[in-house]
Prior knowledge:
Blueprint lengths: L3 H10 L1 E3 L6 E3 L1 H6 L5 E3 L1 H4 L16 H9 L6 H22 L1 H6 L19 H6 L7 E7 L15 E8 L4 E4 L5 E5 L2 E5 L3 E5 L5 H4 L10 E4 L8 H6 L5 H4 L4 H4 L5 E7 L3 H15 L2 E10 L18 E9 L18 E5 L11 H4 L11 E4 L8 E5 L11 E3 L1
Parallel strand pairs: 2-14, 9-16, 10-11, 10-15, 12-14, 15-16
Antiparallel strand pairs: 1-2, 3-17, 4-5, 4-7, 6-9, 7-8, 11-13, 12-13
The structure holds S-adenosylmethionine.
S-adenosylmethionine binds next to loops.
Amino acid sequence: RGSESEVSEFLSTGIYRLSNFSGVFVDPVRLLNSSYSSHQVSSTAYYSRFFQSKQEQPRTTSRKKRKRAATSPPPLNQAELRHQEVRPVLVKAHESFLEATHLLSVLPTLRNTSENSNVSGVKQSLVQLGAVWQAPLFDITLKFHSNQAHPFDNGDVPTSFVDSKVLPIFNNLVANDTSYDVEAELLDSKYIIPRHSCFLMSDMVHINKLIPENSDCGFHLIVVDPPWENGSARQKSMYPTLPNKYFLSLPIKKLAHTEGAIVALWVTNREKLRSFVERELFAKWGVKHVATYYWLKVKADGSLISELDLFHHRPYECLLLGYCFGEAATSSQKTTFKTLRDDVIISIPGDYSRKPPLEELLKEYVPGSKPAKCIELFAREMAAGWTSWGNEPLHFQDSSYFIKG
Length: 405
Ligand code: SAM
């Protein structure tokens, strides 16, 4: 059932290892918070779904549609075979989670409704902003505190602004090299930039020319969450998508460190996509697929967000994990590392398509020297020690997603 000490450790780290099983429950808010010194990620803003009571919960699928999905027998195709293969693992993980009663009892507290957050405010669409002709003229202003320019090591949290830096916001690497959070302004919006992090806001079309030639830019962990086309109107209204063949040209080998890198790729459950990745994409990227993580999505009451066997709306997504070595890697540079195995990550989802942070879960498997250099492609948020690249990497950095800590 999980001891109270395990739960108190979870409340400080955001990670709870299930005892009878190799799965893990995570609180993304706690994991994200380790990147910030003077701000906190607002849990009310993060958990915008799956915390409402049954009456409040908006019904996404009509009763008629659900009935049809549940009664028509699923075709025994490759997708169904994959599902049947992983099904017992997911059932077991969910059972272990439900047995952790101490953990279940704290789930409703993960969303702290007494927080003073302003998440419903209108946010700037960075994708739209990047598409206007004036985009190259837009600047972002980073506001450093008095001791951020020359950070002291005594842990004092700075209080007053003295220095600022104005940088082009698009097609430009913008970095916070200090050991503190930095506030940044773009037009009328304010963003929170974690310590030792940087972002590149651009159309990924420019990726090849934006990676500096012969730079030692190798990354040890490369997370990719592509805007796959899936035909859903909902997705189309959230962000632009790209055809599969586009992803073949992503220079993963160029981004990978010569010591080796884990490449972690989020995929949907569509069979066409899974076979494209396994047969074409990983081969083109030079990635050897070694393990799969299943992200099982639950509500605050511990139940799955949808029926496990609902064909078009599975309550889980897959993260394919593989290794890749940089272009110039020699066998002596390749490091040895702990081998990845299949696993289950359980969490309560945040906003549409927002994935749980992976660094803490993967760090013991990441090859190469420490601290690991990490990059996320198609990112919508930032983290300490990471480079975030995409057409809206500041999306969840909007100050309305934070409370002053
Ligand atoms: N991992 C993110 C998260 O957890 O919030 C979600 C990423 S979402 C699946 C895909 C992202 O790719 C969206 O932010 C979308 O705007 C962005 N995107 C779409 N087309 C792009 C392009 N041509 N260049 C750069 N980013 C693009």
